[in-house]
Design goal:
6-stranded parallel beta sheet, 2 domains, Rossmann fold, globular, single chain
Amino acid sequence: MTELKGKKILLGITGGIAAYKSAVLCRELKRLGADVRVIMTTAATRFITPLTLQALSNQPVHNDLFEAESDHGMGHIELARWAEQIVIAPASANTIAKLACGQADNLLVTTVLASHAPLYLAPAMNHAMWRHPATQANVELLISHGVKIVGPDAGEQACGEVGTGRMLEPGEIAEHLQQQFQHNFLAEKQVVITAGPTWEALDPVRGLSNRSSGKMGYALASACKDAGATVKLISGPTALHPPYGVECINITSAQQMADAVMANISKCDIFIGVAAVADYRPVNSEKQKIKKNQETVTIEMVRNPDILAMVAALDNAPFTVGFAAETENITSNAQQKLTAKGVDMIAANPVSGDNSAFNSEFNELSLIDRNGITHLSRCSKILLAQRMTKEIARRYHETYSTKDS
């Protein structure tokens, strides 16, 4: 891939043991043809020397906000204008907090605030620090400003504990940056995506739902938007912040989701049904809380609308993509769903065992259409969404170029 050839990438390195991986990332970006400049925080220099990054980037390493070598002492402005992309890897909890509140007290944060370049953060910290409400609030705020968060990964950490907080591997971070420069393949297309679970009320307190977090659908909405599409995201109840630049329509039940889809499908080019929609709902939702005064309770259920089949059956239907969450016979069950619903493509993913996609930052998919199967190996949902978006775009253009001819 040559998407980074000649691209100007500013690599920020903050204090953390994962800084050693930044040397590998710098070398990988150079191998892919990028022009790399490096800013290190003072804390970062305690973990890896500036000389190492200077040798790998073939450029001076910047650290001092008031370095005398820059014209007029305005080095942060020069670097801010120069960069086409900025990636901070590792991004510490401290730097994330500074960026969230605009605390420009070092060269790295000051440069970021002065730049219009897309910003990628690869967090790296102890798992408790990552899950702390303050860190999560800062991350959500940055996402709402359009910042891309890549990772973190889960596994054993330098402190000896196990959890989510490891920096993504350099090769995966580089692939995220490559995807940024492939942004026109859905230009001027209208995309509607469903995401998350639905909630079918039994009474004012209880309901039927599922374990879907919505992360895959939200990641696809962001990836399609980055690919140039206008995106509408129809979301069930989640704890996620809508992707930057994406219109989000919030619903609760399957019927509400079906109504929202049909109200927004007329000008849609591509429909992606990622939501885990309840197959059934109670015939009656009680007005008052059901009391625990019987040993058994029988609840009569009725089928919900099949949103995917409804969209695929429309006259002039959009290119329609469904998801099949399966616990066994994943490929064969997904192939049956492809035929039964009449969709253009099914993305099958496993949801049982240790590699279940539910409530995970990672997933793997098998993309199934009438021409065969394409497997997308396990990686972060953000990167997986970017890969899947490219596959959807390729199939969409092949389908409609064939129809037009």
